[in-house]
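From the pipeline queue, job 12 of 40. The input is one protein chain; the requested action is below.

Action: predict structure.
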Amino acid sequence: MALKKSQKSLKKWTSQKWGYLNPKDAKKPRKKRGRYLPASVRRSMTASQKAYENRKKRAANKKGKAKAKYTKRTARRVRRA
């Protein structure tokens, strides 16, 4: 039986090695955690890009938002991961 598009997407998502940009974030409270991205995206980012993404995510968390928009470049990388 063939998988539906949503099932394929979920299968692909679970096979990626997702984690925080800063490994120590996993032990922090949710409001103080940074970006959660696939390993391939984390490896391709520079230190300044990682810092910017974490600052952006933490600022959104401070305002009580669960999500923060990715930069265009990061969003493209996540889609292609």
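Job complete. Residues 18-80 form one domain.
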